[in-house]
Amino acid sequence: VGNSCVLICSHKPNMTMATWKINPKVGGPCSLGYRADQNKTDRTNCSESINWKSRPDRDPTLEIRQVGRAHEGRYTCEVVVAEGNFHTSYHLTVLVPPRMTLYCDDQGNPVCEAAAGKPAAQISWVLENNSTPKEEGHDDGTVTVLSKFTAYSTNVTTCIVSHLAGNWSKSIVC
């Protein structure tokens, strides 16, 4: 989320046409096209964040700026040359890093939360305990994971959140 994404479409010498067909999970399809004989580009229903990375006559690579969950879906590039049509397809999945919080509950137990991540984060503790993380799914496809440190300790307790978008740790004394 928030980064730029580049999808490569192989450039062929003497390309006559290049087309990106985009079918997002949410919303309607969009397309970008380039015709070499007219040196003309065309776009249909694509947001401004989706565009050619540079000049399509030199390189038909696609760039998505400020990637969001709405950009998830199937991206297919077709390049037309005299020898035939060449396709490249991608399935774009957007990772959402969770928001990590660590606090003490009413009984003095450390509670670690990894909120609204996609996919669900993994929570672990530096010291072993018998906690079973609870997951709550949200309508937007994100997941909140909650874990309570249940082993008795008056020392510093450290929670570790592991996610495809990164790893975080925090410590607390309750």
UniProtKB/TrEMBL annotation:
It is a single-pass membrane protein. Residues 60-173 form the Ig-like domain. The keyword Transmembrane helix applies. One of its GO terms (cellular component) is external side of plasma membrane. SUPFAM superfamilies: Immunoglobulin. Keywords: Disulfide bond, Glycoprotein, Membrane, Transmembrane, Transmembrane helix. The keyword Transmembrane helix applies. It is found in: Membrane. Gene3D superfamilies: Immunoglobulins. GO terms for molecular function: signaling receptor activity. Pfam families: V-set (PF07686). InterPro entries: CD200R (IPR040012), Ig-like_dom (IPR007110), Ig-like_dom_sf (IPR036179), Ig-like_fold (IPR013783), Ig_V-set (IPR013106). One of its GO terms (biological process) is regulation of neuroinflammatory response. It comes from the Eukaryota. Belongs to the CD200R family. This is MOR1A protein. It comes from Rynchops niger (Black skimmer). The gene is Cd200r1a_2.
